[in-house]
Design brief:
Length: 137
Amino acid sequence: MSTSVSGLNHITLAVADVERSPEFYRDVLGCAVRAIWSDGAYLEAGSLWLCLSRDEEVGSALRPDYTHIAFSVPEESYSELSARVSATATIWKDNRSEGASSYFLDPDGHKLELHVGSLQSRLAYYREHPGKGVTIL
């Protein structure tokens, strides 16, 4: 196929409190707040554009599925960031996969992850550990 998407443009998350949520992403995860207004905020995490948008319908109840957003973290920063997350956020899952990961909730119940590694490191893991039902293409 010659025509395809070129990457992820931005992620928008519904939030109940447009003061609390940007503070969480700035103070806990280290995102840069680039713009803020009465109903939202734009933040940056590396090359990721994150939009937080006020939505009165958002709830903080844990969603039952595995859908989540994973943030890349350099290995040398993982311990510090993971400790900040553990001290501030609710942990929703223990890591059972290759690579260091912390699974936690933001103030609005969005499932997030800090992850050390890449698609390439994950594929290399499965090449070294065949038999887990994964076919590398």
